[in-house]
Amino acid sequence: MSSLRFVQVEPFTPVILPPGGALQPGPPGRHLGHYPSLPPGYQSMPPGHTAHAMSPIIMKLPWSLPQPPGPAGLSPSLAAMSLQSGMPEALRVVNLLQERNLLPPGPLPAPTPCLTQDLQRINCNPEVFRSTLTSIPQTQSLLNKAKMPLGLLLHPFKDLSQLPVVTSSTIVRCRSCRTYINPFVSFLDQRRWKCNLCYRVNDVPEEFMYNPVSRAYGEPHRGAYVFILPAVYLFVLDVSHNALETGYLHVFCQSLLDNLESLPGDSRTKVGFITFDSTIHFYNLQEGLSQPQMLIVSDIEDIFLPTPDSLLVNLNESKELVQDLLKSLPSLFEKTMETQSALGSALQSAFKLLSPTGGRIEDPNQRANAKHLSPATDFYKKLALDCSGQQVAVDLFLLSAQYCDLASLGNSLIFCFLSGAVYYYPSYHQQHNPAQVERFQKDLKRYITRKIGFEAVMRIRCTKGLSIHTFHGNFFVRSTDLLSLPNVNPDAGFAVQMSIDENLDDTQVVSFQAALLYTSSKGERRIRVHTLCLPVVNSLSDIFAGADVQAMTGLLACMAVDRSITASLSDAREALTNAAIDSLACYRQSVLTIQQPGLLAPACLRLFPLYILALHKQKAFRVGTSTRLDERVSAMLQLKYQPLAYAMLMIHPTLYRVDDLTDEGALNINDRTIPQPRVLQLSVEKLSREGAFLMDAGTVMYLWIGRNCNPSFISQVLGVPSYAAVPENLYLLPELDTAESQRVRAFVGWLKEQRPFAPTLHIIRDESQMKSSFLQSMIEDRTESALSYYEFLLHLQQQISK
Length: 802
Fold this sequence. Notes:
- By secondary structure, the chain is α+β, with helices and mostly antiparallel strands.
- Strands 1, 4, 6, 21, 23, 24, 26 and 27 form an eight-stranded mixed beta sheet that branches.
- Helix 5 packs parallel to helix 10 (about 435-450), helix 13 (about 570-590) runs antiparallel to helix 14 and helix 17 crosses helix 18.
- It starts with about 55 loop residues before the first strand and ends with a helix.
- Its main location: cytoplasm.
- It is a peripheral membrane protein.
- One of its GO terms (cellular component) is endoplasmic reticulum membrane.
- It comes from Neogobius melanostomus (round goby).
């Protein structure tokens, strides 16, 4: 494939499922100082197509190009800077068995690396680029001794309000390691700069010379070259009887009609449609036809395209035909009794249609029964490899009340190779489950209208002496540090594990750089460059002081998902527990200077055991509680795919009391007053029958109304006279002209705005069926099959004391 071939296709295919390498076994038992490793979930695949040459025309850089300080110009005090000076708060000793109220009153901030103010100011935003350890050990042996994972969590295509764009025909890169110029390089003089990753000295191009007026490097000449190809959207829809019974097709067609003008692209954007049951239906929407033409292919064993040149059409030229098709599709199949669903053939058809350009697909079908987390068939894996080679991504919209074999669909097609996502809506039905219908509508609108990048590749580089050994996320690994992403979107997260190959004795700081090369929906070839700088330390206390407990939890969750699939769920759970045991044991034995009784942790890791217990009780890893296989696999996929901020809500939900909201300490955003109630522990002892409590679990929210809740709150917020009058399936907060209603709606709305997807809100009473799901998220309480938080702490203490 030519490096100048820019193919961007956005075949969106709502896939609606109708209702209906290897690990080496560890040593027996547990040995202190060792926990079962979570080996790479992805092996480097044989190279398919040559990666794009990393020499695009437009480069996006998240920095404003001031004259940057580099390693050669660091403050002399940095090398001697000790994280222990004055005993920082991060190292304050906490006895977990005695201190119960460990949760901060609000969101837990990311730790700040111990760098000079100049470096802090230009460092990458932790929402985009975050390390599990904000102080990097000098040696691998020191990292091994600390017993904490070293890795990076990335959100490279995140929606950012301010992202400076450098437009130039010359992209400045290191001649040796190909690192992009960034704020942490050293300028030796006006014509030479030193790479902060491999330390090579490079020449500064003329257009990047020092500007004495602006006192900045990098005033590139204008005159970028832009190669443009049209965006293409392909919609693949299940029209079998079981799928249509859910009512999804009406919702989908109306949502697409409402958002047709908002599809990313330009005047040359193309669209196409495929529907399927036991046969495959193509649609000729060529300009000049009086109405859409359906073309049926019944030989699903040998799929062919009936009219290849008229199945993808210009949206502007054929808009009326597209609108007519969307209006007629629901009624066209409403009387069908066909229950067969030729998913595999539909996917193959979409692949044939898109393979000349690349694109995006989604689909559904009920497959053979699978009893395990690994795929029951390799059909989708083979198709995934074909799609990846042609820059085709796959997204799955699964709307079903029955088993879908998501283990085969997700793990083979999405999970391993392609840059798509799974949108799962259990018990979806247009009439019986309006909350899921609302969520589907909002998710679909976000999916159709969000920013997107096509034919993307991402390379992660690091300072000499460091290396990457495992990737986590949805992609195809082309080489040791290059990921192929047929499509990239702002809602996707990635993680990598790192190791230290060479001692960093003479290094004060290290840098990590993620470069994402993609084609925008407008046809521009762009690069996003994110660079993170962190200090190097030589003591265990400094390493512990820089631990990022949420980043560690997110990386361990990804590692545990891989372990569950390649080994077993019990192995993954054991490894999670041992990660907490080993890190706290190391802290007690090697960092504490005065031994004390109890289960001791540094303040920065005080929530680590709680988060590990939360992972044990998360749908992805819990045992002893009835969990549908599809729901478990969906939770695993989300933990691998979601950026850290969203994944943490799934792991450890937040609980608030909302019947006593006030304006004290409230935020003022766009003339809206947003109350800020305190975060409560996830325990029923924090609930009160006299109150109302909101739980935010990421993809779902619960508003629990106590039996003796103030009737005034119930009437002024829910619009009903009493507790008994609260409807069973209430999922919307009515817009009432009361101060209480405005406060609750403002707070709930603000929480929803913090994420791109639409969480479902369930308003529940003591008698509600959803109450059990609400109580299962009370992480600190004991259940029939899981320890309470206090019991888990005692278990950790017992293991550490052995």
